[in-house]
Design brief:
- The complex is a heterotrimer of chains A (123), B (234) and C (84).
- Chain A has 123 residues and is mainly alpha-helical.
- In chain B, helix 3 packs across helix 4 and helix 8 runs antiparallel to helix 9.
- The two termini of chain B are 45 Å apart.
- The relative contact order of chain B is 0.15.
- By secondary structure, chain C is mostly helical.
- The longest helix of chain C has 33 residues.
- Chain C is built from three helices and no strands.
- The chains are: A mainly alpha (123), B mainly alpha (234), C mainly alpha (84).
- Chains in contact: A-B, A-C, B-C.
């Protein structure tokens, strides 16, 4: 149990989530299921990124009474990946909403949600 | 048959690439150089107790500007796509009456949710929180209001006015940083104040107010666009 | 030690909910399972010492994203019932 650190568990979960999301995008036939697969892909990537910044036994990067101010560099985890993931989560929501708006308009044109019926661009 | 083999090969290839990420997680015992510099010089240069907020608004402020621009683009494209045609707008919508628990509870809970959202982005430089979290909480309050009485039309002009003024003010504060301090989005042109009090960290609370209002109004605009394409109940 | 056990339980719950979201036939179960993945991931971020990220993921991932999916699903079902 001592070799498996928390960051390794996070990386493993993230990799599995990315693979499950990608598999959902490649094999499902319903457009809404494909969009759910994209959302799972996003969540997996964020878990890996936050896992990169984790250091063993240290605490959150907020300087209040729990952290000694002079010694802060030895007691906190890395704050830069957390700032990047914060932005990425909000943008992921915007992209999902945009994809759902496209799906709604596609359904109102063709009355079907199976992706096999949309073969206008096939050669 | 070929398709299944192809999908399998693609997934195995992705897994092999992703396993490389084990090399740079969980192996260090101390922070790298950039994080050490932010942790040591952060409270003196920026004055914010929340280091993630300090990194997000001042040290990597240009990325936040790009993110705000992308969110604005996505919200305007959704508003363009889901435009209700003019003849559909004139028909009065009949909706089923919502349950009494939802109506009564939403009258009590919605102001509290808005107040909590404003508290979260006002104290973003002292405790966990900030503009994005506060904006999302305000949008959730608006969703509760829309769920309780679906007939109520959201005034789109107010949402777009708030969003435009907030975005403009954010860029304006950044440009003020160029003239009065040392760079774009530098927050020391107001004065750093005491560490840990509410009126500290220079311009960070003001920037967070504008980011919170912008994100909140954008997400509310997205949700109300999707809500208005609902037709009446059967 | 106890933290690692909680992390392993959360990881198993995340993967189980993700498989449920992709493999199930009904759309409603898939959407709710995706919301549950976001919820468990938010608790997982708290174990990884990231309270800001946990707050954002809980508000956006399992709140607003699920609501948007349900709005679109409702609209599609209304159309299908009217035109059948």
């Amino acid at each position: 149990m001592e070799q498996i650190s928390l960051a390794h568990i996070a990386t493993f979960t993230g990799i599995l989530l990315i693979l499950i999301g990608l598999w959902g995008v490649l094999t499902q036939k319903n457009i809404i299921k494909i969009i759910i697969g994209f959302s799972l892909f996003d969540t997996g990537t964020h878990i890996i990124m936050v896992g990169v910044g984790y250091l063993k036994g240290k605490t959150a990067p907020i300087l209040d009474e729990a952290v000694n101010l002079k010694n802060a560099a030895n007691e906190i985890v890395d704050p830069v990946p957390q700032a990047l993931v914060l932005t990425a989560i909000v943008i992921g929501l915007g992209i999902t909403a945009l994809m759902l708006a496209y799906a709604l308009r596609l359904y109102q044109r063709r009355k079907t949600l199976e992706i096999n019926n949309y073969n206008d661009l096939k050669w | 048959m070929f398709k299944k083999v192809f999908i399998f090969i693609v997934l195995i290839g992705f897994a092999l690439i992703l396993v490389e990420s084990y090399n740079f997680t969980g192996s260090g015992e101390e922070l790298n150089e950039i994080a050490t510099r932010y942790a040591e010089k952060g409270p003196d240069e920026v004055g914010a107790a929340n280091l993630v907020g300090a990194v997000l608004v001042t040290y990597r402020g240009l990325d936040t500007l790009g993110e705000v621009a992308i969110l604005f683009l996505a919200a305007s494209i959704i508003g363009f796509f889901l435009k209700v045609k003019l003849e559909e707008e004139k028909v009065p919508r009949k909706v089923r009456k919502t349950s009494e628990i939802l109506e009564t509870a939403s009258k009590i809970i919605t102001p509290v949710i808005f107040l909590f959202g404003i508290y979260v982005f006002l104290n973003g430089h002292l405790t966990p929180g900030g503009g994005f979290q506060g904006g999302a909480i305000i949008a959730s309050g608006l969703v509760l209001m829309l769920l309780a009485n679906p007939i109520k039309k959201v005034n789109h002009s107010i949402i777009s006015i708030v969003e435009s003024i907030s975005g403009f003010a954010f860029v304006f504060l950044g440009i003020l940083g160029i003239f009065l301090a040392s760079g774009f989005l530098d927050n020391s042109f107001i004065g750093l104040g005491d560490f840990g009090k509410l009126l500290s960290a220079g311009a960070i609370p003001i920037i967070y107010i504008f980011i919170g209002l912008k994100v909140g109004s954008e997400l509310s605009g997205i949700v109300s666009n999707l809500q208005e394409t609902q037709k009446e109940e059967i | 030690m106890i933290l690692k056990i909680i992390a392993i339980i959360l990881a198993l719950a995340i993967i189980f909910m993700a498989l449920l979201a992709v493999l199930n036939k009904k759309l409603i179960v898939s959407i709710i399972a995706a919301g549950a993945v976001s919820l468990f991931a938010s608790v997982f971020y708290l174990l990884l010492a990231a309270p800001d990220v946990a707050m954002t993921e809980a508000a956006i991932g399992s709140g607003l994203s699920t609501i948007i999916f349900f709005y679109v699903l409702n609209k599609i079902k209304k159309d299908r019932l009217e035109n059948v």
